[in-house]
Amino acid sequence: MVESLIFARRSLSEGGVDLTCGQKYSFKTYFRTSFFNFQTTPPPPRLRRVKNQQKLTDNYRHKGQRKRMVDALRRRGISDEAVLAAMAAVPRHFFLDRDFEDHAYEDKPFPIGCEQTISQPFTVAYQTVHLNIKNGDRVLEIGTGSGYQAAILAALGAKVFTVERQEVLYFNTKNLLDELGFKTVKCFFRDGSKGLAEKAPFDKIIVTAGAPVVPEPLKEQLAIGGILVIPVGESVQKMLKIKRISATEFQEERLDDFRFVPFLEGVSRK
Ligand code: SAH
Questions:
Q1: pTM of the complete model
Q2: What is the pLDDT of residues 102-144, one digit of tens each?
Q3: If we measure between CA atoms, which residue out of 223, 78, 82 comes closest to residue 139?
Q4: CATH code (residue 118)
Q5: CA distance 126 to 134
Q6: Is the distance from CB of 137 to CB of 163 less than 8 angstroms?
Q7: What CA–CA distance (Å, rounded) separates 151 from 112?
Q8: Ligand 1 atom at minimal distance to the Cα of residue 263
């Protein structure tokens, strides 16, 4: 049974300072709890200020909305209980601009800046189910974006290496994941079309942008027995599940059609 993660954060403000993520803070305590343990963690390093950053509070309203989101995923055919538990545990509204808080648990993508979007919950669940994450799996994600998909993988016990080509998204999401205490997620700023050779091989690789072709380095960096889940195509993408059978053999399964933001080469510092 996968350990579900629940993050309860209590910010103590002094002198009326509003302690939202991304603001300079004077004093802070937050608690990370799970079903089985309760521990305090030291405050993370000072964060870059982020406009309209979400307040990191998870109240009963959010929890109720999350439960309804999970019920809707079940109705759409997601039946993997570990994946559903992870999606019930991770607050999606933490990963969105504050303006979208009321809609965070709808099955929709939303803008996250740099013309990119957070994937819709069904797509996150779908790709995660096909990865068949086991506790301790080393997982490479190409396309960090908001960090939500990485958080779901971490909640399932994966060691996540996530790569982003947009510098602003890389910084903001790295800070957010640190703030939330996701110690098993490591963020990298680079072009993911070359993978992450120094951390290979990976048990699982997930690409969260629509690629014109399957980048060869990703196949090479897959462990034998490993799985790559990648949407491939121009305007509409076919989700491919590629299993590495041996050093030279790969088995490809063609799944459903999706629409992703494009997989682009090179990095962007805009
Ligand atoms: N997994 C993300 C989805 C973000 S959208 C989430 O949960 O929010 C896809 C992301 O892929 C975008 O942030 C985009 O900048 C990034 N991307 C596209 N091409 C890339 C590449 N070659 N290398 C790394 N990241 C890439």
A1: 0.84
A2: 999 999 999 999 999 999 999 999 999 999 999 999 999 999 9
A3: 223
A4: 3.40.50.150
A5: 16
A6: no
A7: 16
A8: 19
- Give the residue, by CA position, lying nearest to ligand 1 atom 19: 263
Q: Does residue 270 form part of some domain?
A: no
> Does 263 reside within a domain?
no
Residues 55/98, Cβ–Cβ less than 8 Å: yes
The set of catalytic residues is 119
Q: How many CB atoms lie within 10 A of CB 79?
A: 9
Number of domains in the chain: 1
Parallel, antiparallel, or unpaired for β 110-113 and 116-118?
A: antiparallel
Residue whose structure tokens are 């121009």: 234
143 alpha carbon to ligand 1 midpoint, in Å?
3
Residues with CB under 6 A from ligand 1: 116-119, 142-143, 145-146, 148-149, 163-166, 169, 191-193, 208-209, 261, 263-265
Residue 10, CB-side half-sphere exposure with 13 Å CA sphere: 7
Helices 60-75 and 121-131 cross at an angle (nearest 10°) of: 60
> What is the domain extent for residue 241?
5-258
Q: Do 89 and 1 meet the contact criterion of CB atoms below 8 Å apart? A: no
